């Protein structure tokens, strides 16, 4: 649970992905929403820096989870 609300946004997103794959995301909806909101703010603030900072798999995970969560993320 601490990893879901971690200071590291990528660690939070990896945990969100793991929880969704297990099929227990309905138990953590509020925490997942908070993690996605935090990640959306980071991505929308400086998208070029975000893409250049993280590896491709982490960027793709971030974009997929944000879009799946209903956030508009520019390609």
From TrEMBL:
Against Gene3D superfamilies, the record matches this protein to: Terpene synthase, N-terminal domain (1.50.10.130)
Give the species. Stylosanthes scabra
Name of the protein: Terpene synthase N-terminal domain-containing protein
> Where in the numbering of this chain does the Terpene synthase N-terminal domain appear?
6-74
Q: Which domain of life is it from?
A: Eukaryota
Q: Which residues cross the membrane?
A: none
Q: Which is a Pfam family this sequence falls into?
A: Terpene_synth
InterPro entries, alphabetized:
Terpene_synth_N (IPR001906), Terpene_synth_N_sf (IPR036965), Terpene_synthase-like (IPR050148), Terpenoid_cyclase/PrenylTrfase (IPR008930)
